[in-house]
């Protein structure tokens, strides 16, 4: 059955879940979307991995409890990311900010093939980009994360964050201008 499920679009899998066929379709949806969802939430949480894991897990639980609310007019991914975003907003409003757990990742490069100086330069560049992204205003950081780390279209982003298409475009434009100015400045 899992090979058959792998061929189904997300919306049909979600309808199966809503109709009581839960484990296999939900597992397939999780396999397809958990990494992108976690990455998006991690950017919202400014790299706090524990908080991002908690929100991502709560989003999946809410999805299962709200599956009857799902309407195939909305793309599944948009629906799922809205749940996660709302969970983050609820947490942000209700809880004090926790200590961040810094997570540094190198790009997919065989580190053994690089010299020590090159590895250090890459880590420094990654650190500068990450720091610049985290300094963006939350609304700008959110659209950048959805666009480039979750690979959403501008229309999907607009629907997910509940803003107009033009607003999303403007936020991206301002974010990139700010990032460009910050990253082109001497360090």
From TrEMBL:
It comes from Viridibacterium curvum. Belongs to the sigma-70 factor family. ECF subfamily. Residues 29-95, 132-181 form the RNA polymerase sigma-70 region domain. NCBIfam families: sigma70-ECF. CDD domains: Sigma70_r4 (cd06171). It comes from the Bacteria. Keywords: DNA-binding, Sigma factor, Transcription, Transcription regulation. Pfam families: Sigma70_r2, Sigma70_r4. Gene3D superfamilies: 1.10.1740.10, Winged helix-like DNA-binding domain superfamily/Winged helix DNA-binding domain. This is Sigma-70 family RNA polymerase sigma factor. InterPro entries: RNA_pol_sigma-70-like, RNA_pol_sigma-70_dom, RNA_pol_sigma70_r2, RNA_pol_sigma70_r4, RNA_pol_sigma_r2, RNA_pol_sigma_r3/r4-like, WH-like_DNA-bd_sf.
């Amino acid at each position: 059955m899992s090979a058959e499920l792998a061929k189904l679009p997300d919306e049909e899998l979600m309808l199966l879940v809503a109709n009581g066929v839960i484990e296999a379709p939900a597992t397939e949806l999780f396999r397809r979307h958990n990494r992108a969802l976690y990455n998006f939430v991690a950017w919202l949480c400014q790299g706090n991995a524990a908080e991002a894991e908690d929100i991502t897990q709560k989003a999946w639980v809410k999805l299962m409890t709200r599956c009857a609310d799902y309407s195939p007019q909305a793309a599944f991914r948009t629906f799922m990311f809205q749940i996660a975003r709302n969970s983050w907003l609820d947490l942000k409003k209700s809880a004090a900010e926790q200590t961040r757990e810094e997570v540094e990742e190198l790009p997919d490069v065989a580190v053994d093939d690089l010299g020590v100086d090159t590895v250090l330069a890459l880590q420094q560049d990654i650190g500068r980009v990450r720091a610049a992204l985290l300094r963006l205003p939350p609304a700008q950081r959110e659209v950048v994360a959805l666009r480039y780390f979750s690979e959403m279209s501008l229309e999907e982003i607009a629907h997910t964050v509940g803003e107009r298409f033009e607003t999303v475009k403007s936020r991206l434009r301002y974010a990139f201008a700010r990032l460009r100015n910050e990253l082109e400045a001497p360090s």
